[in-house]
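User: I'll paste a sequence; please echo it back and then give the predicted structure.

Assistant: Echoing your sequence first, then the prediction.
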Amino acid sequence: MPPTISWWSCSNLDDVGQCYDLALGEPDRIGVTLGRHINDEVTSFYSNSPSDSWSSTAGAGRVIDVDTWQTEEVTFARACGAMTGCG
């Protein structure tokens, strides 16, 4: 059974980085290292909690204008991170 995941949204990349630095200070806290989502450009990492669930800390995503935004197809990895690799 996959772990339960909680999400924490940060307002900027500095906050995500500061949370990551704090998590690095605890053994086995990082579940998935820092990476960037391909579709929404959010930077995030996953940490392990004492209750055996995961917590996703994320922020600094793509900002869109709902009046002019158009859908797009992502056909290759444009971001790097533990979950996406580099490409």
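The domain at 5-59 is CATH 3.10.180.10 (2,3-Dihydroxybiphenyl 1,2-Dioxygenase; domain 1). The beta strands are 5-10, 30-36, 43-48, 54-59.
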